[in-house]
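User: Working on a comparison across species. This one is palmitoyl-protein hydrolase from Scylla paramamosain. Can you predict its structure so I can line it up against the others?
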Amino acid sequence: MNGLSIRDICCLFCWPPCPSSIAAKMAFIPPEPTYSFTPDETGSRHSLHLTDKAEWQFTDKEKEAIEVFYTRTTRGNKIACMFVRCSPNARFCILFSHGNAADLGHMSSFYLSLGTRINCNIFSYDYSGYGVSAGKPSEKNLYSDIDAAWHALRTRYGISPENIILYGQSIGTAATIDLASRYEVGAVILHSPLMSGIRVLFNTKRTWFFDAFPSIEKVPKITSPVLVIHGTEDNVVDFSHGLAIHERCPRAVEPLWVEGAGHNDVELYSQYLERLKQFVSVELVN
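Assistant: Here's the predicted structure for palmitoyl-protein hydrolase from Scylla paramamosain:
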């Protein structure tokens, strides 16, 4: 069951329960880093170097659109950040929290491609323990990581909250929902969201006190417009999670239910890009 051993299952029902170990086992799968940062002579600026596993789809010239740096979280971890300048006249910048089995290197080509197509710049970061970010992945670190990314985006680039779109994918929706429940932004996009950690494993309607990533309890606090995207054949985070999250959002817009799509292929369907363009270029500017 999602790679859990008998010992892990027992941890769920011991007293007191041990949700943090279950969450780490279930939610975080850091890949081998696909990139590195190289500091200049002063140590104040860094350049991005991608390995073959990053599968960069563009030229070296286009890679110059990417700026990378480190920032530090309130929990003391130094995490990697990436700013992708996709469009010189972009109104919005997307703060993107990626899925659990990727890092910034894996995502770099996708960011440049997506941002160019929907006329948005993209800012992203690696969770603690991912890529060249220090520390270990955990639920507490996840929330601290996105807080640090948010403040870096606001202070380093001077982007106003109303021009920031929070985008979370899979486990990244837990970080996105947590931040969006505390700050009003231009919009929120939740791609394959989960209601909570326990609900991914078991069919329960209750949020237990030891549950991890209790996003379903936080979404009613989001005051920004929310677009939910989910594949109807998702066998990792069931489609019912997307439906429930959408229903609990006070300012939910028309969702995108991608018929036949699973957990990792929603982006391959034409309606994905069409819905994002409509949301960003039409609905948010009117």
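For your comparison, note: The chain has one domain: 65-282.

User: Helpful, thanks.
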